[in-house]
Design goal:
Blueprint lengths: L4 E5 L3 H12 L3 E6 L17 E5 H7 L2 E4 L6 H6 L2 H4 L3 E4 L4 E3 L5 E4 L6 H8 L4 E4 L21 E5 L2 H13 L7 E5 L4 H18 L11
Parallel strand pairs: 1-2, 1-4, 2-3, 4-5, 5-8, 9-10
Antiparallel strand pairs: 6-7, 8-9
Length: 217
Amino acid sequence: MSSTTIGILGAGRVGLNLARGLALAGHDVVVGRRDPAGPLPDQARDLGAQVRFTDQRAAAAAAGLVINATPGDTAVERLGAMADELAGKILVDVANATHHGPDGLPGDLVYQVGSLGERLQRALPATRVVKTLNTMLFVVMTAPESLTTPPTVYLSGDDQDAKDAVARLLGDLGWKSDRIEDIGDISTARATEAVMLLVTQVLRHKGLRPIAVSLSR
């Protein structure tokens, strides 16, 4: 994918990991924080000049492609309030809407019917939502080659051009084309979001090791 400005909503571990990977791939990145005046996390201090920080609304307005790395349980309300800034753009949703378990890991799904991806698309009808990268520990998002078994990344979305653009972006992060699986329209996000329950159970029993849910053929 040609270099472009990418907005990332959320400055937690997921958002900053993606910011670093995309900057290394040559993209300019603007990260939107809920409290732009607050101190930067330690892991944000060495990201380089290609990554800048602002508030979330300004980040959404500044970029042609925006990544949702905010908590999934509040994402619909938060992003719905940015409908004007996100209109006409691609929104890459990497979040999972889950309740927190007692150990801090994701617990039950917030939405027992449908998916976060579908709800975002309904809340943002002028935005092209693509669900991806939500079936793995966050470090694998930018380092698929780190796993001994080649991982699979899934794409869900109603707009094929948007999915093709996101597939190219995934390529910039090291994902090979034969490991990118387009599974259909945005309703298929129900399947990948539910898979996060499996990921969580493995992490709970094996520890926070890099893992991803992959297809074997």
